[in-house]
Amino acid sequence: MLPSAEEWLKRTFVDIFRQLRWSFLPPLMIYFAAGISGLTAIVGTFFVKEYLGLSAAFLAALAFWAGLPWALKMPLGHLVDLVWRWKALLVYLGAALIAASLVIMYALIMHMDGMRQFLSVETWFVVSSLLAPAGYVIQDTVADAMSVEAVPRVRADGKPLFEEETKSLHTTMQTLGRIALISGLVFVALLNIVMFAGVESLEQSQKANVYARIYMMALAIPLVSVSGVMLSQAILAARARQLRKQGLKPDEADQLVYSPGQTTEPNYWMFVGGAAFVVLTLAIGISDIPMAQEIVFCGSMAIITVLIYQLVQKLPRAKARALIGTALIIFVFRAVPLPGAGATWFMIDQLHFDQQFLSVLSLISSCLTLIGMVLLRPLMASRSIAYIVVLLTLASGVLALPNIGLYYGIQEWTARLTGGVVDAHFIAIIETTLESPLGQVAMIPLLTWIARNAPADLKATFFAVMASFTNMALTASSLLTKYLNQIFLVTREVKDPATGAVQSPADYSQLGWLLITVSLIGVLAPLFTVLLVQRSRLQTHD
Known about the structure:
mainly alpha, single chain, two-stranded antiparallel sheet
C-alpha cells in the first residue's frame, strides 16, 4: 500500500529535522570544511599559469605526490581508534597544516620577493601543495569517527534505542554528511562566480589582490573544522556532567562519554599495510615501467584485501559475510566504466555546449544531489543495500538513454515537435537533473552499515579501510574507461595554434557504440553481482 502524501512528506522532510541532534553538527562542520576546500582551486591554476614556469609533466608529478596522503587513511583510521579520547588533537593538527598551506600561498602572491630570500617560489608552491592534502586527510578520517560518535545509543531516559531507530539515525547522519560536503561545493561554485566576475579585464596587480583575498577567505576552512571539534568537546563535556549529576562516578561518566566500547588493541597489520601501500605507490610512481597503473591497482587491491580479511575477523561470522557481500556490490556499482572525455568533446564540438553551460550543468548537479539525497533517505533507511543498488542501476541505465539519443540526433526530432523548446541543451539539463543524486546515494548505505555494525573500538579503522576499498573501485572504473576508449577510438579536431592547420581531424563515428557499451556494462555488471551475492552465503538483508 502506497503511503499518503502526508505520510510521505513526514517521512521525507519532517523526520530528518526530527532526527537532528546537536551532536550531529561537529562532524558536519568538518565535512562542510572539506567541501569548501575547492575555494582556492581556480586561483591556484591561474597562479601557476601567470607566475610559475612549471611544466605540465611537473604538475602531473606534483599531483601524484599530493595524492599520497590519502593512501595513509588506513593507518590513520586505526590511529584515531587508538587515541579516541584525544582525536580532537588530530583535527587541530590537520587545521594547522591547511592554514600553513594557505598562508604560504597568500605570502607568495603579496610578498613574493621576500619569500624568495628563503626558498624559490616553485619550492614554496610545492610545499604548500603537499601540506594541504595532508591536513584534509587527517580531518576527514576523524570526521568519519565523529559521525559514529554523534549518534546516540540511548534515549534521554537511559533506555537503549531500538535497532530500527538506530539504523534510521545512522542513515540520517551519513546522509547529512554527504549533504554538508556537497553544500560546500555549491557554496564554492557560487562564491567563485562572484569573486571572478570581471577579473579578466583587471591589471595583473589587481588580479593578484583578488587572488590574495580568496586565500585569506580560505582561512575560514580550518576555522570551521576547529570550531566543529570545539563544539564536540563542549557537547561531550555537558553529557559527562549530566551523567555525574545522575549519580555516576566521574571515572564511569568519562568512560561512557569519551571512551565507549572496548579499549582498542593495536593492529600492526594496519600500519604495515599502510606502509606497504605507500612504498608500492612510490616505487611504481617514480618509475617508467609498462602497465604502471595496472600494477599499482593490483598491488593496492591485494594489500586492502588482506587488511579487510584482518578486520572481518573481529566481526561475527554472519556480519562478516554480509559486509563482504555489501562491499562487493558497492564496488562493482562504482567500478563500471564511463564514456570518458570523448562524450564531452562531442557536446562541445557537435552540440555546441560552451564552458558556461557545462558549469551550469555542474552547479545543477550539485544542487540536485542535495535534494535527491533528502528524498531518497527514507528509502535507504527502510530497504536493503542490494535493493537500493538494483534500483539505482536500473535508473542509471534509463538515464543513459538521453546521452545516446543526443549522439543519434534525437534533439532534432524533439525540437521540431516542440517548436525548439526541447533542444540539446534542454535534454542535457533534464538528464543531469535526474541523474545527479545516484553516485552519492550509493555510498550512504555502506557508510550506515559500518556505523551500525563495526565494533565500537574499530569504527574509524573500518571507515578508513572500506573507504580505500570503494575508492579503488573508482580506479577500476578509470582503467575500464581507458580500455574501452582504446577499443572505440574517439578523437576531436586539433589545430595548430599558429597556422590554424588541422593536425588531427575529429572522428566521433565510434562514440555511439562506446556509449551503448558503457550503458550495457553499467546495468548488467551490478545486477549480475547482486544476483550472485544474494544467492551465496554473502547475501545481505541489511
